[in-house]
Amino acid sequence: MNQARHAYVTLVTNADYAVGALALVRSLQRTRTDAEIVVMHTGGVDATALTPLASLGARLVEAELLPTSEAFNERHQRVRLHADAPFTKGNKPAFHTPLDNFAKLRLWQLTEYERVVFIDADAIVLRNIDRLFSYPEFSAAPNVYESLADFHRLNSGVFTARPSEATFRSMLAVLDHPEAFWRRTDQTFLQSYFPDWHGLPVFFNMLQYVWFNLPGLWDWKSVSVVHYQYEKPWEKDHPKADKLKPLIDLWHAFHSGEGIPDLNSLENPAGS
Asked: Average of pLDDT values for 33-39?
């Protein structure tokens, strides 16, 4: 495959996610991928927060928020969405702005690439995952972090896509229909838009809560992507910090680029 036509893409909507993206970009580069690394960013990010990403060689692409209606925006603003569809399993940080998530769909406009793999900015990649470029659109791992009953839902933190302006226009037409309410924003929308989504193994998008909820699923020999859903590893003293300390320490090593451990030396969680 022509790697020049492939790209890993992430989205940065504020300075906090720029911090996360720095660790993600460093982790991808350590896998020796030949694919480009693209950071889409919205108007909510100051240029100074993006400078370290550009210094690492990431391609910066401005991505405006989608042209959704005022009614749609009202239904998906943070206070309204969290009231109508509250998060009961973990805490979303104060900088989380749900409406911004829909800008992720802009990646379908990156038609200079034949295939892309999207990765949320609150994730790190531990080993080369370039084979994902050969997976069909739309492929994603299940949203498993509490029980096996969640295997029927996808998690949009990692997925494969084939950019297309026609697909993007089709998405916009479906997204903002009257009374549309996507309770988990882009994640719920993408599962609806791609009802026959192809399931990836969980180790391509290992959600951090698996560490203490389903330790039997965690195996460092196969985990390729660690996704820090809910609380973020750069938050100080968050409620799950003690439970997740090994994963938080790992993220900080990738963020600084120093002291990154040998994956083969990492111990699986108790009970695995």
From this structure: 97
